[in-house]
Amino acid sequence: MTKHLNLTFDEKWEIILACDRSYDGLFFTAVKTTKIYCRPSCRSRKPKKVNVEFYQSIEEVEKAGFRSCKRCQPDVEHSPQAGLAIAVKSFLVGHYKQKLVLRDIARHVGVSPHYLERMFKQATSETPRSYLEKVRVDKAAHLLAGTKLTNLEICYEVGFQSPSNFYKAFRHVKQCSPSEYRKLGSKRVPVLPEQPTL
User: Fold this and answer.
1) Looking at residue 74, what is its pLDDT?
2) pTM above the 0.85 mark?
3) 9 or 122, greater pLDDT
4) Burial class, 21, CB count within 10 angstroms (exposed 0-12 / middle 13-18 / buried 19+)
5) Domains and CATH numbers, the chain
C-alpha cells in the first residue's frame, strides 16, 4: 500500500541534511548518479540536490532500478516493532493538522492504545504524542523559513491547538523561539564539512 506523506521535496531534503532518523521508513532517498537508495538518517556523503529523487516505498525505489545502501541498510528492519512504528509515523505525518488522541492512532493501526504507546516507545524512544509534536514543529520551521505567514497563523496551520503549546514545543525541538528561528534564515541547517557533495 502506498503511503501519502504531506512532505514537499524541500522538506525531505532538509530531513536528509539533518540525518533525521525519526522519518526512517516513511520515504527513501535515491541518488541518480550512484543508483543507491538510503534511509533519511543515513550518514553517508550527501549528494547534490539535483541528483536526488524521493520514493515512498522500498518496492517503488527498487522497481526504479536503485539498490540499497550498504551503510544504512534501508531494506532491513532493525526491530520487530519497526513495522508498527512506520505505520504510526506515516499516519501522524499524513494527519498532523488534525486533533489526534492516542485512541484515534491506535484504532488506525489496529492495536490497543496501551500496546501502541509501549511498542512505539520501544521502537523509537519517544511517544506518539512527542513524535506528532516534532512533525508539527518541523512543518512550522519549513513555513517560517519559506512564507510570510505570522507565527500565530503557522501555529494553527500545523495543527497546534494553542499558541502556548506551539511556542513550548517549538523551543523544545529547535532550542529557539519561532521568531528567532525565522531570523536565523539559511543559517539554521549547517552543511557539515565531512559530508562533501558528490
Assistant:
1) 86
2) no
3) 9
4) middle
5) 9-68 (3.40.10.10), 130-188 (1.10.10.60)
